[in-house]
Amino acid sequence: MENPGNRLSKKTLFAYGCGDFASNLCWTFVGSYLSVFYTDVVGMAPAIASMIMLIAKIWDGVNDPMFGMIAERTNSKKGRFRPYIFYGAPFLALFSVLTFTTFGKGSAAVGWAAFSYIGCGMLYTVVNLSYGSLSTVMTTNAEDIAQLNSYRMMGTNISSVLLNAITAPMLAAFSAGSQGYTAKSYTIVAIIFAVCAIPIFYFVYANCKETIQPQKTETRIPISKSLKSVLGNGPLMLLFLIQLIAMTAFFGRMGVVIYYLMYDVQRMDLVAVFMSLPSLMTVIGILVTKNHMVTFGKKKMAAIGYIGAGLSLILIYIVGNTMGYSNIPVLIILHACYGFFCFSFPIPMAMVPDAINYEEDRHGVRADGVSYATVSLSTKFGSAFGVSGALLIMAVFGYVANAQQTAAAMNGINLTVNLIFGIMYLVCLIPLYFYPLNEKRSAEIRARLDERAGLSKE
Fold first, then answer.
1. Which pTM value belongs to this model?
2. How far apart are the first and last CA of the chain?
């Protein structure tokens, strides 16, 4: 077996970054447009759409750790995680299309929406959790682990830039001059993205290898022991909490910012600019900071990012309330600043291998799949709680689909999309403060594990 301490090639790093690009071809469209598809196309009340998303994520709370345990107990020639990418990708692509189809009316439409969305979420778990877990088993080199997650986040945001730039024009084009986007246009766009995603997933599968394996005596550890090792892992639980808060803010805003642009800013011609600019600036932020994660410290860099992102959103809210939504240059600048400070998003995931090593060093249990699933679950919960909570708050302020909004409703949209989520980024600093592992301590733990495994220090 290849020494897991060897440095990864640029091709491998690039291939790994493509994984989230492929995932987002299926999932970013869901995250950004599904809520408005449900309310403004299917005709669901915001409360019903919110309930579907919430139920789906409650199920994810059971499904994700369960699949993590299945994956880490898988024993195949291709590894523990890679086979699920190979076999799961086509089914994820299929359900990402079904999510943007309609079936019947009334309760039938709601039932179909729940079935397709929950199915899409389960398949996303199979593929994306397996893909994400690869970063914990591809290398033991601390710098490469940070680079893997930086490349991953660049893939995420490059895809977001592309999708946010082309989705609105594509929907308009396939709506054939209709006043709003049609159900057919959503389905066609979903098909195009799904077809493009499958070969990219296979590129990741072919180029990202697993080099870290648990000791043979641990391949069949009891499920109860895996769960205990994860729940008793203090650093991992703090990472879960950090990601839960940050992803609630990030995905929550992503899922409802379209309402802010449609009803507050009222510049549909600038939707692509406002939705793609933050992702573009995140890529720039990651490129600027990714080589400093280990030397400056992941914890400090994360704190800088959360502070910058939080303050940027709070300022966007203040500008809307005081200067008006027509001050486009200021709003664009603040959206760019928000995107830049989102460079912090890959950092907690780069800390996950350190937390896994911490638990293995203490108790001899290496629960890669369950550990990653636990932290990854925060992304699922965050996207559900953020969007569903935002829809409910907007409804309280009087939001009505496809109508001229009252002043109270417009203020509610601004408060939800910007102020609440901005404050949430600042709240991330609390659990981050208590996170106990730094670069020096993590390196010492890794050295002890390598010594026990008899690996050379190449």
1. 0.71
2. 14
Q: Which residue has the higher pLDDT, 62 or 260?
A: 260
Q: Show the tokens assigned to 255.
A: 């899922």
Half-sphere exposure (Cβ direction) of 291: Cα atoms closer than 13 Å: 3
In angstroms, the CA 17 to CA 22 distance is 9
Per-residue model confidence as pLDDT tens digits over 300-340: 999 999 999 999 999 999 999 888 888 999 999 999 999 99
3-state secondary structure of 452: helix
- Quick check: 174 pLDDT over 70? yes
Cα 85 to the center of its chain, rounded Å: 17
The two structure tokens encoding residue 206: 């072919």
CATH number of 10-211+223-453: 1.20.1250.20
Residue-wise DSSP of 138-207: S---HHHHHHHHHHHHHHHHHHHHHHHHHHHHHHHHHTTT-SS--HHHHHHHHHHHHHHHHHHHHHHHHH
Q: Say which residue the tokens 């996950």 belong to.
A: 352
The number of beta carbons lying within 10 Å of the beta carbon of residue 345 is 26
Nearest-angstrom CA–CA distance, 266 and 325:
8
Using an 8 Å Cβ cutoff, are 306 and 355 in contact? no
Q: 80: which DSSP letter? A: S
Q: Measure the CA–CA gap between 392 and 386, rounded to whole angstroms.
A: 10
Contacts of 255 (CB under 8 A, 6+ apart): 31, 32, 34, 35, 383, 386, 387, 390
Give the C-alpha separation, 30 to 120, whole Å: 10
Is the pLDDT confidence value at 239 over 50?
yes
Highest mean pLDDT among 23-27, 131-135, 152-156, 235-239: 235-239
Q: How far are the Cα atoms of 168, 282, 295, 432 from residue 290, in angstroms, in the given order?
A: 31, 11, 10, 19
More confident residue, 6 or 428: 428
Q: Which of 92-96, 128-132, 208-212 has the highest mean predicted lDDT (pLDDT)?
A: 92-96
Nearest CA-CA partner of 282 in 344, 348, 349, 340: 340
